[in-house]
Design a protein that fits this description.
Serine Threonine Protein Phosphatase 5, Tetratricopeptide repeat
Length: 298
């Protein structure tokens, strides 16, 4: 096959991958993306000027592997893509995407230092674009906030959450799901650091947004009620905490297939509050019912 024909075949393969992915045929898309990568690798052996096509194929393949939860193979593909960008100058937007994708893999694989470094590099690249890709920056800032929180770096976590909030609110307005996620994460940061009054304010803000959003995941709404209830319990506002737990569990119970963990935590905290109020039987009843519902999902 001539190099010209290989280039044509590669373009057809890449287009087919996009078509299969948009059609929800993930396994077929992965297979075709692998073929595209193999074709691109052979092509650059004699046509190194086609390296950008290989980078594009690798990025697409890595994204599909990550989407299918194959993080190990996705990592090696993204690393290969980055190595190729040193041979052929990729545009900053693509380079930022690849770095942020590899960072998310490291994030998932519990390698925070590698993830943080790549998230920061990706943020810098997205910021330098004309115009800057601010929503990408906001999402990455939120990811950084979570990593810094896990590492116990309160100030850096708070700083990144605040920057993320500013961007989302300025660009998307005050009622959007992305903004609610960051408020929720900021509330969790304050709670874990002992700033319970501040945590309450953040969780109330997240809940208000989620209640007013037309398209909101019910699990997220249930999570907000549960987080706020836990904070209210900590502040001694037990009556409102009880109402919050009841609403949270009612919502989460209807979406158990999507999030068993949040439901289990909400029920456990609700039972704890009942025990603190001297209602041991009610606490046991809550726990038994939760266990029964969770067993049905296994």
């Amino acid at each position: 096959m001539s190099n010209k024909n290989k280039t044509t075949v590669l373009k057809v393969l890449i287009e087919r991958v996009h078509s299969l992915k948009s059609g929800g045929k993930l396994n077929e898309a992965i297979r075709t993306a692998q073929t595209a990568v193999d074709t691109a690798r052979r092509l650059i052996e004699t046509n190194p000027d086609q390296t950008l096509n290989l980078i594009t194929s690798l990025e697409l393949f890595g994204d599909l592997l990550r989407e299918s939860d194959n993080y190990t193979d996705a990592e090696s593909i993204y690393i290969e893509a980055l190595e190729q960008t040193r041979l052929a100058k990729s545009d900053n937007e693509q380079l930022a995407r690849i770095k942020s994708s590899l960072a998310s893999v490291y994030d998932f694989n519990q390698s925070p230092e590698l993830a943080i470094a790549l998230y920061q590099e990706a943020i810098e690249l997205f910021t330098q674009l004309v115009p800057p890709s601010e929503l990408d920056v906001a999402n990455l800032r939120n990811n950084l906030g979570m990593l810094y929180k896990e590492n116990g770096n309160f100030d850096s976590a708070e700083e990144n959450y605040m920057k993320s909030l500013e961007i989302f609110e300025r660009i998307l307005g005050q009622e959007n799901a992305e903004l609610a996620v960051v408020y929720n994460n900021l509330g969790t940061l304050y709670y874990s650091s002992g700033f319970f009054a501040q945590a309450r304010e953040m969780h109330e803000q997240a809940l208000e947004i989620r209640e007013n959003c037309t398209h909101i995941n019910s699990t997220d709404l249930g999570q907000s009620y549960a987080n706020l209830a836990t904070t209210l319990h900590q502040l001694g506002n037990n009556e409102d905490a009880l109402q919050g737990y009841k609403k949270a569990i009612s919502i989460l119970e209807n979406s158990l297939s999507n999030d068993r963990e949040t439901f289990a935590i909400a029920c456990s905290n609700y039972a704890l509050l009942m025990r603190n109020l001297g209602k041991k039987r009610k606490a046991i009843s809550i726990e038994k019912r939760a266990q029964k519902l969770l067993r049905k999902q296994t």
